[in-house]
Amino acid sequence: MPRITAELPTPDVLREFGDRIQGYRLQQNLRVIDIARLSGLPTRTINRLEAGENSTLETVVRVLRALGRLEALETFLPPPVLSPIQLAAMSGQVRQRASRPRKSPESPDRE
Description:
With 111 residues, the chain is mainly alpha-helical. It is 50% helix and 0% strand.
């Protein structure tokens, strides 16, 4: 199985993701109809996901839950970690939005 890297084009990432979902399903000896029943999704939706076609995040969550792999999302996208210095600067407040980068005298305006 190829590794998913930043250089891999999006269609290839989706195909690899679908192959991995299919691999977990087959590893558990489940048919597409079994996953459809467990997830509450149509079999065609499962087939599309496994084929690497564009799917919704809800579909991914429901299929991962049906496969008993939902916890994989914790590794996939862990909560962001702030350094102690960032926490002190924010005085315990949670950041709500991003700010514009500050302009430096030597960098051109990017707008």
